[in-house]
User: Fold these one by one.
Assistant:
Number 1:
Amino acid sequence: MNKAFIFDMDGVIIDSESVWPKYEKKFLPKLIGKNRYLKMKDQILGTTVNKLYEIAGSYGLRMDKKRFVQCFDDYAKIVYKKAKITKGIETLIDKLISLNFKLALVSSSRQLWIDMTLAKMTKTADKFQYILSLNDEGVATKPSPEGYEKTIKKLGSKPSLTIILEDSQRGV
């Protein structure tokens, strides 16, 4: 069995969570309406775009999903350009590899956003043996353990040999 180390992305690998709120406050009220935004704003952090579309729909949003996702992607390009890779994360990745850990990344973010983040990691982007976008793969969102369980299996590990680095209560 392999030792495994699984990273969350937003807030762990990249400091995007300090950037997102500024833009969400701008574009989401315009996109879904101020009242819907106020009702669901506490459900945004750590949730997939697909799930946010469902939540907005439960509050009466009648919009094409493709347009909804495209708007998020447009702002994600700004957010991930401004957000910085967490200081020391690439050193940690190298250390884990030297200790024979298999590495993975599990994120609620879209694969496009993951790719934007990995492009900023000049030394270690190719060190992950498995990458899972819960949003794009249709895997149950956090706090469901489904994504982590799938990843542990893909890495040839088991829970007792796996460390997961998370930053949000939803992920924990």
Number 2:
Amino acid sequence: MAAAAADKVRPLRRVEYDKLVALGVFEGEHIELIDGALLHMSPIGAPHCETVDRLTELFVLTFAGRARVRIRGSFAAGEFSEPEPDLSLLPLGDYFAEHPDRAHLVIEVAESSLSFDRGRKARLYAECAIPEYWVVNLQDRTVEVHRTPKAGQYEQIGTHHKGARLQLVAFPDVEICVDDFLR
């Protein structure tokens, strides 16, 4: 019986989701659309907030006039997904009419969501050809850098610890020190 019911589930399209959001249907809910399904997002703890705040300050100061820094904003990831990454480094542009569908870099800060961010989120961003995706792993105090998206996965994944300096693919002249945002 459960298998028959699952066959009748129709995924929600991003355009439908955006209309429902505009109507206030999800008011007060902390959700995101992934693969046509509405998923509740994990509650955000103090270490997560502090890390996002540090990343925000660092990226805004570093990329002013070169790229747009978006914090916890929607990203148009194909027809059936609209995640809200903790930080997106976007091409300069006007995103008033539509959410961005391209990014130089996407960052997820992970504590309880670590397996999801390493798994489905990594595949989703690779499918969107995001050239670089970071998982700031608060459990192990590392930054997992995913690069070279191909066929729905990243070909290069490296783990960086405190003291490391990260050079961005889209901005090779910029180095970000892990110590500047990860305690």
Number 3:
Amino acid sequence: MGICDTLDDWDDIGPSSERFTELRDFVNELLSEWGFDPPDWSDQPHPEQDGAPGMYDSDTGTIHLDPDFLGDADASDAVNVAIHEGLHAGIDQAGWDLSGAAEEWEAASLGIGVGQDLIEGCENPTESGAPGDMPDYPWVSRGE
């Protein structure tokens, strides 16, 4: 299922665990398209997450998504958070030496762009929302 189906069917997907699986699979495929390895994922908040909907732990290479957030979030917010955390994993794999604030800004700004492209693409009935249909983004992946 492409992300467009996930966005359209968000309210019918079911419990947060099913939403988590949809987001994890999409972001892993998206990262793979960009030349990154999939990170580990947890559907439980990280002890240091402090109320944030998601967190990437660079020490373990794990993205944590809060199940309460996934249960209450609208589809576009959940997709944006998952992509944002996935970008943290990509930045980590690329070995960018960014300060915490710079990395947060980079992941946020790129994540918003990706999310907006997805939403706009899904408004076109010929788009699937498959990661292979996504544009390339302005960074050098580990493979380049």
Number 4:
Amino acid sequence: MNTRRIIFWSGFVIVLGLIVWGLIVAMNKPVKDNRPASAGEITATDHSRGPIDAPVTLIEYSDFQCPACETYYHIVKRLLDESSTTIRFAYRHFPLSQHANAMPASLASEAAGVQGKFWEMYDLIFTNYTNWTELANPTDIFVGYAATIGLNVDEFKKDMASSTLRDKIEADLNGGIKIGINATPTFFVNGNAITNPPTYEEFKTIIETAAQSGSK
């Protein structure tokens, strides 16, 4: 065997060895958990419903214009209706940049919240999802909802334009980004992110398991 062939095969063996070593290292490297970090506890600044001492806290980062969020709205509502003493639920805003009407909808909910009717507006926004999501400007629709639930409409309009409320929404958004959220809806059960269950039954099982564990 000539010298050139020896060098070639020696190099081949070295390269092959490096490849095998790299595969072994990769296989033994811990898999990175891409789930968001803990959402923490529900705070006084959150919009929340349900008993303060409920065994399960459910926090949702959501975008009112997100189709998946609209789907999960109905699942969460059923969970809350059927497990009213088990769950304390908090809604946090995460308006995505590709949804032009997500911020106006969030502002509408917060403006209603100023008058003590966040959840009434939340329900109307989601249950009438198809009526406003594709509008160039949904403000008039939201003003109509405000009248429907008995709000002072002039105050509502003023609050919808409030930089204070916009800052509150952006604080939710930035807090979500900080803990690694990049999609909506994102749910946390007792502070920990979950993989979105595809059915009501599977979501209910997650809640029941968390309630039985009693860990918060």
